[in-house]
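Chapter review: from sequence to fold.
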Amino acid sequence: MIASLVFQGLAILLLGRIAWTDFSTQRISNRDVLLLLCLGLSTLQLQALQTHSWLEMGISAFGGLALFLALFPFWLLRKIGAGDVKLMSVTPFLIGGSNLTVFSILLLIFAFATLAVVKNPFLLPAGMFRHYVQHMDRKGVVPFGVPISAAAICTIALQMYHAIVVATSSGILEQLN
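The token string follows.
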């Protein structure tokens, strides 16, 4: 359990880095996506060993493949970046198949918030930040990795909270001491 929490914490830090890099440079590196994939697979592997079921990993693999196949044509049409497609394809491995609904709802909320900020940059406090968002709107480039990362961070944080609550209420932590 503790190893899973460490992997999830590292994934949150890496997602934060990806969001900032995508916001500032409109790039998501393959290295970061591969690191996320490794962290997600490690977490799913630990969960599979604890529960003696590989169903969660299978659902995650199916979800990742489905997202890749659904978003790939949009990349071919230059409507979405390749990094965004890869990041979306990896997120089911990070959050698990059973949490895809929570992730989808959060992604919708963060995507609409991003759209609102890009279309109305005067909602933002700092002049330089506002200028940057106006520049993004003129170029037609929206860093979609930011809402993807934010939704994944929130979903992973909810999973971690749930794991800690279950561990403390069941007495597992007292047994470990």
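Two observations follow directly from the output. Residues 145-170 form the longest helix (26 residues). The two ends are 14 Å apart (CA to CA).
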